[in-house]
Amino acid sequence: MAIEIERKFLVRGDSWRAQAYRAQPMRQGYLVEPGGRASVRVRVVGEHAHLNIKAAIVGSARAEYEYEIPLADAEPMLASLCIGRVDKVRHYLEHDGRTWEIDVFEGDNAGLVVAEIELEDEEASFTRPAWVGDEVTDDARYYNHALAQTPYTRWP
Amino acid sequence: MAIEIERKFLVRGDSWRAQAYRAQPMRQGYLVEPGGRASVRVRVVGEHAHLNIKAAIVGSARAEYEYEIPLADAEPMLASLCIGRVDKVRHYLEHDGRTWEIDVFEGDNAGLVVAEIELEDEEASFTRPAWVGDEVTDDARYYNHALAQTPYTRWP
């Protein structure tokens, strides 16, 4: 078990792209409706698949469990057991000694770009790059689990 | 992935107990409400814990995935992430070359005793022991997932 502390921000413009050093397409789905006690996610990145279980608490610190599973299991789970789907490309960049992950969403969530930073504790300080916009850590609509059910392009 | 074919029956009386050769206490909980596409179960048996994902199709044949996970992960999942809980003792016995599993439920499901047999295909024949009662394979109330939410002692 890990306690994950991450903060999430909207992204302004495209200036971050020049600094990104890696891009990783991700396909993921959820075995649980949003709104319960936990999210159960199946994620495929390249040839690797993982099952991830997270406490569904809005905010930045929550219990998280992750297990690698066979790709041959993950594909039929994504195809027929998952109730919602999120496809995105995750970009990585370094800023002032910290790693940022920038998710550029696709499909029904196209247009949404979000940046996340993982921190050692809830009070940790970090430098905000110029392209970082409003913080949305506590806004449940931006949970990937919520985006699988109510995608960005269909927000009221 | 495995396709699991099992049939489930109510149990009459206690005569089966003389034949049982093993008893295994099981504690399990579910990360998903019943009624969705899949069930996600955490089960602890002795020092071992597994995560099990099953397509939620009523009937005897359904896709199933199972992964061993650390006991240290399973305990907090059972304690705080699971939305329903089922405790039971599983007994094993052999009858005419086939293994029967007899689940004696505890807690809110006390009084319920169910026997299951796993078969190689849906048409496979088997001998019904005298203590086997009505078949409940297709009755979703007897799913452990359903029993976690609506236990036997609270049935209308």
From TrEMBL, chains A, B:
CDD domains: CYTH-like_CthTTM-like_1. It comes from the Bacteria. Gene3D superfamilies: Hypothetical Protein Pfu-838710-001. Residues 2-149 form the CYTH domain. Pfam families: CYTH. Transmembrane segments: none annotated. PROSITE patterns: CYTH. This is CYTH domain-containing protein. It comes from Banduia mediterranea.
